[in-house]
Amino acid sequence: MSAQSAEELALAQLLVQSLNLDGIEPGAIAPDAALFGQNPGSLGLDSIDALEIALAISQKYGVELKSDDEATKKSFASLRALSAFVQQKRVGQ
Amino acid sequence: MAASTLPLITAYHPSAVLAWRADGPVTQGTFAAEALALAQQLPQGRYAINLCEDRYRFMLGLAAVCLRGQSNLLPASNAPAVVEALLQRYPESYVLNDSMAVASAGKIPARAPRIAADHVAAIAFTSGSTGEPQAHAKSWRVLMRTAQLARKVFLPDIDAVNVVATVPPQHMYGLETSVFFALAANCASHHAKPFFPADIRDALAAVPAPRLLISTPIHLRALMSSGIVLPPVQLIISATAPLTAELATQLEHALGAPVREIYGCTEAGSMASRRSCETDQWQLHPRMRISSQQDAVSISGAHLSEAITVADDVEISSARRFRLIGRNADMLKVAGKRASLSDLTQKLLAVPGVEDGILFLPDGAARPAALVVAPSLAESEILRALAPQVDAVFLPRPLRKVAQLPRNELGKLPYARLMELLAS
To answer: Helix, strand or coil for residue B390?
Structure first.
């Protein structure tokens, strides 16, 4: 398991806080682990969480998530992918 | 004597718009021609499990299936185990999804194709408390009439309306407002099921005014929190869960349109409505009545073949008005999906290694929590066993393992004790 970057840790803190994931330490979320689904190692998030994440990200980073956008779909794969997506969109704005 | 028939599209004008696809408007004429062509290409069988997520494809599939004399099965979830159980339960059934080939259409018919009024157009399912989902058969006539009635209540003075819906077409609420509003009541539906606030804005922007937004409290709350600017909307309709008067008021201010709530059920479709920021009283649709006999409350309507027993706790104000005191505590409704707590608990108990357990809804929570006695299993293993059978939004969170459940002397589980154990 690779270590979190500073951006990934900040995003992990936002996820834990906005989703009320009690018992999960932001620093302990593996950057490459799945966010959604029930496979081993996944954070086990679902569609309602996705809506909360979109709100939190638009409020904190000013980045808009859309479901018909392939980049958004890929970004939900892991903390690392989501963080990269947010940083890229932020720079692009 | 020939059985009576109804048109596929009421007040058919071949050039009127019926739907909005990604590539632009689709006319009623094109839709009718495509549906007739697809009907010829469908597999043999009696039932099509219509899982199409694209609303246009769903409508096309639904119409083609009916024109072919078959019936649409509309499961509450597209989880693989749910679909497999339907295929087993209904011999001669097959699955229809977005990957179906749309036949190249023939000539646009001058008149609307017709469907037998009594044809079982769709069978909707509610999760029963015993495990097997309960089937509710809908005739073409009832689906068309219910939509026409509701359309008159909500938008009596507007001729053509463009509909954007955040709910799936397989759910009774979505079926009535986004599919049958188009077929029966001169509306045109956008093909997508927008999810994020930005999706909803884009879908609304893709259709001209007047616009009708069909949604749920979860989507509307997100829309409100996002502060996103929407194109002008004529009316917003919410259903599936209670909308607070506070949120309704905020939405009306922010969007400049009235917000109406629908009270309905899978058995009957929409039955009553209210403008949520003004009143907590539900007003029944025209030609519907509510009455109570020996503690059982029922609603009847001229277009319904039988009276509907109301599962919720209600206070009747008049033959046409009532107030909800409490919702049926067993039923969970989230974002247009529904599940029964007792059914979910049965599924939990069926997991090998689970000795005892319960799912319940903590006060104010959007999703259920679970307490489980399963000494040999990890919490994540239990969730993985449930996942293929249960829609993700109903997977319990948290799911907590306990040594035993706090059953009282009657074997019941008092809510306060469950909450204590969950918090400990």
So the answer is: coil
Report CA-CA distances (Å) from B92 to B49, B125, B370. 11, 18, 38
Q: Closest by alpha carbon to B299, among B123, B149, B181, B179?
A: B149
Written out in words, the top-level CATH class of the domain with range B332-423 is alpha beta
- In this structure, are residues B157 and B130 in contact, taking their beta carbons and an 8 Å threshold? no
Kindly report the average pLDDT of chain B as a whole number: 90
Please answer yes or no on whether A40 and B380 come within 8 Å at the CB atom: yes
B50: Cβ contacts below 8 Å, ≥ 6 apart: B58, B61, B62, B65, B72, B73, B74, B96, B122, B170
For B232, counting Cβ atoms within 10 Å of its Cβ (0-12 exposed, 13-18 middle, 19+ buried), the class is: exposed
Question: What residues does each domain of chain B span?
Answer: 5-279, 332-423
Query: Across the interface, do B384 and A38 touch by the CB < 8 Å criterion?
Result: yes
CATH number at A6-92: 1.10.1200.10
User: Percentage helix, strand, coil, to 5, in chain B?
Assistant: 30, 30, 40
Cα torsion through B169, B173, B175, B179, rounded to 10: -100
A47 vs B contacts (CB less than 8 Å) = 195, 335, 392-393
Chain A residue closest in CA terms to B22: A68
**Confidence label for B189 from pLDDT (cuts 50, 70 and 90):** very high
Sequence-ordered list of residues with C-beta below 8 angstroms from that of B78, at least 6 positions apart, any chain: B51
What ipTM was estimated for this complex?
A: 0.86
**Cβ-nearest to B198 among A22, A23, A66:** A66
* Chain-centre distance for alpha carbon B214: 11
Query: B5-279 has which CATH code?
Result: 3.40.50.12780
Determine whether the interchain pair B196/A66 forms a contact, defined as Cβ–Cβ distance below 8 Å.
yes
Average pLDDT of B291-313?
86
Please state, in angstroms and as integers, the Cα–Cα distance from residue B165 to each residue in A47, B131, B202, B282, B383, following that order. Answer: 17, 30, 12, 23, 31
**Distance from chain centroid for Cα B307:** 20
